[in-house]
Amino acid sequence: MSISEKIIITGITDEGLVRDHNEDSIGHTNELGLLVLADGIGGHKGGEVASAIAVDSILQDLNKALPLITTGKIDESTGYSIESMLIEKAIKDANSKIFDAAQKNSKYEGMGTTIVVLLLYDNRITVAHVGDSRLYRMRDRILEQMTRDHTLLQELVDRGFYTKKEANESLNKNLVTRAVGVNATVDVDLLEDIALVDDTYMLCSDGLTDMIDDSLIEDIHLNYRDNPNKITKELIKQAKDHGGKDNVSVMLARVLKEFPANSNWYTKFLDIFS
Amino acid sequence: MPTIQISLNGEVESELQLAKDTMTIGRKSDNDIHLDSLAISGHHAQIVTILNNSFIEDLNSTNGTYLNGSLIKKNVLENGDVIKVGQHEIKFITISAGAEDNFEKTMIINTAAIGMQETEGNKAIDKSVGKIVAEIASSDSGKTSQKIAKIRIVSGANNGKELTLTKVLTTLGKPGVQVAAITRRPTGYFLIHIDGGDNGERPHVNNEEIGSKAHPLKNNDTLEVAEVQMIFLFE
Questions:
Q1: How far are the Cα atoms of A4, B58, B232 from residue A115, in angstroms, in the given order?
Q2: Which of A228, A247, B66, B109 is most exposed, with the fewest beta carbons within 10 Å of its own?
Q3: What's the pLDDT score for residue B156?
Q4: Cβ-based neighbour number of residue B235 at 10 Å
Q5: Residue A60 belongs to what H/E stretch?
Q6: B93: which residues sit within 8 A by CB, 6+ positions away?
């Protein structure tokens, strides 16, 4: 049984009600449990171009690299899994491609994109992100934001200038401090975690989270619990009903069954006390 | 541009515009807002303005900074707010630019290379937030959590054993009894409940059962997983 039968993956991107084009891009490879979402930044067509390059390039790199490795091995020097290292490398490659394209064509100067990548493998996940596109998890009927935005606002919250509530009401929401393709190099945030049956992972652009708050997102997940397609559609609909001022993209991965790399995966739970 | 109105004993003494990104308030004459009173520290507080928002920040003053009657360290300022330092009251006045048009496009603040290529958007931003951006770039907050941590077992057969958390994701426990994981994220270390065995019990941190969300760990926290007690420590 392949991983695509154990995890349901859905995704929608929508230009919203105000913008006349869509600068978001999404893509996934179900057989690898791989999801990628990008929100492009930059005038003219720059944003669209940057997010499309990012998604295409990352999918291409990982579709090639992931099947060649042994699942679940750890990179000794960093402590991350080999999968995490490959994802980081794929994002850095995309960064170079976008940066080079912008250097060559003045029309695209300064373009960039946010990115969030989710990979499900061996009952684990790796999440990689840059910018303000987010990853959330629904577990035990509770929604948790797992990524931390790279925005000026989040930096101000971290430094104690704002409470989270004040931050939500602030005007300086959309200033990202990191993006893919803007500089010659990029820092990628990586996190790893254990995936459990019934988890639902959600990737989204700020077109969702600027329009509706986390409690409404949680309610929608609870209302349509077993139907990822419906959840995705309803989230997009609600973002539009609440203004739809930006492009909005949502991707979900719902874990139906365990997906160990080999059958006795539980024996790996023996880092200590064994 | 926001303005402030300074009063003493209910009488307005002066009014001025917040012309600079950072306006300091204090008794010494080198302050932007110079208030000559013994109740006010040399450099008492500052008002920082970033794009559309202004903030008040106390600079470890002796007598403190009050905002609308409450003692604060840092806070965002809203139209009509009253800051009190010593006996002086400073009223913050801003004419907000209609809520309708405030939905801005996402823009990038270039933290890596100030003075590199400028887009239309970040030109204005680079100017007004240069200082805080430089601070963000230099602090590199994403790396602070990469300190190496370890856990020391303090009960049972393995008492005294230590495990350095070299992997990003470390699993602990006994399958069927209780399983948890410690994960290193860019924001720090977290304990995660995975499996509670037959009775569904969750791990404890400092004697409290953790929830479904990842639980942040601090130096010297005591953990209990699968009835084994341990301490979380930074090396």
A1: 23, 37, 33
A2: B66
A3: 85
A4: 9
A5: helix A46-65
A6: B2, B3, B4, B5, B79, B80
**CB-CB under 8 Å, B184 with A79:** yes
Q: What is the rounded end-to-end Cα distance, in angstroms, of chain A?
A: 30
Residues of chain B positioned with their CB less than 8 A from the CB of A269: 171, 173, 175, 179, 194
Q: Do B120 and A177 touch (CB under 8 A)?
A: no
Q: What are phi and psi of A63, to 5 degrees?
A: -60, -30
Start-end of H helices in chain B: 120-139
Q: Which among A161, A151, A179, A191 is positioned nearest to A94, based on CA atoms?
A: A179
B170 to chain A: closest CA residue = A271
Do B165 and B185 meet the contact criterion of CB atoms below 8 Å apart? no
Nearest to B212 by CA among A202, A142, A198: A142
Q: φ and ψ at B123, to 5 degrees?
A: -60, -50
Burial class (CB in 10 A: 0-12, 13-18, 19+), B166: middle
CA B209 to chain CA mean position, Å: 26
CB contact under 8 Å between A176 and B133, yes or no, is: no
d(CA A147, CA A202): 11
Please tell me which of the candidates B129, B170, B211 has its beta carbon nearest to residue A271.
B170
B-chain CB neighbours of A160 within 8 Å are: 73-74
ipTM field: 0.79
> Tell me, what DSSP letter sits at residue B141?
G
What is the reported pTM? 0.78
Per-residue pLDDT of chain A (274 residues; tens, 9 = 90+): 688 889 999 999 999 998 888 999 999 999 999 999 999 988 778 899 999 999 999 999 999 999 999 887 889 888 999 999 999 999 999 999 999 999 998 888 889 999 999 999 999 999 999 999 999 999 999 999 999 999 888 877 777 777 777 766 665 667 888 999 999 999 999 999 999 999 999 999 999 999 999 999 999 999 998 899 999 999 999 999 999 989 999 999 999 999 988 655 444 445 555 3
Helix axes A214-223, A228-241, angle to 10 degrees: 140
Task: List C-alpha distances in Å: A53 to A21, A30, A36, A131, B207.
Answer: 16, 20, 12, 16, 49
Nearest to A194 among B106, B141, B194 (CB): B194
